[in-house]
Amino acid sequence: MNIDMILQKFPELHGKLSQEELMNIVEYYESLEYLSKGDGKSLEFNNKDKTHAVGVMSTIFKVSQKNINMFTGCFKGDICDHRDYIHELQTAIEKRKVSVKIVFEDEPNTNSVCYNKLLEIAKSSSKVMLYRLNQEYAENLNKVTPGLSHFLVSDGRMIRYEEDEKMYKAFCNFDDKKTADILERNHSILVANSE
Question: What are the Cα distances from residue 155, in Å, to 26, 63, 97?
């Protein structure tokens, strides 16, 4: 991984970041590659911007073998429509037969390239299940716990849990079975209260 590769992934960064800032992104992506090898390194790390979010989720999709469960907003497109995100998610589903269950908190964005790709795959595959959280349930849940946090959990060990969705801040771990178990149970509750 080098600066040119990062600029190919994110052409909008060209001329906006210093060489040092671009090298920090390169190092972050190299760390993701290292941590994704699944060598029992339970290390929590942060996701602090859009480039990190695309990298973390694409990496999880790339190494997932069994399932990907997600609770998300609406697929507004800034992360999910990145070509790496779509490619790795589609490859997981079509090549490795990974099952994907996504619960949307809000009405999905019908202009999202990724959402439309998933709808297309779902027509011919039982591996993709898309849900919309029941609005009455969401309102009641928000009264108890304001501001539902979005999350991604895969294979009972990899997690990305958002702390601030507007700033793309999240904590992540590629080998945290305890937190993954909690998120899997929460995801099952959300699916049970979805349409």
Answer: 26, 9, 13
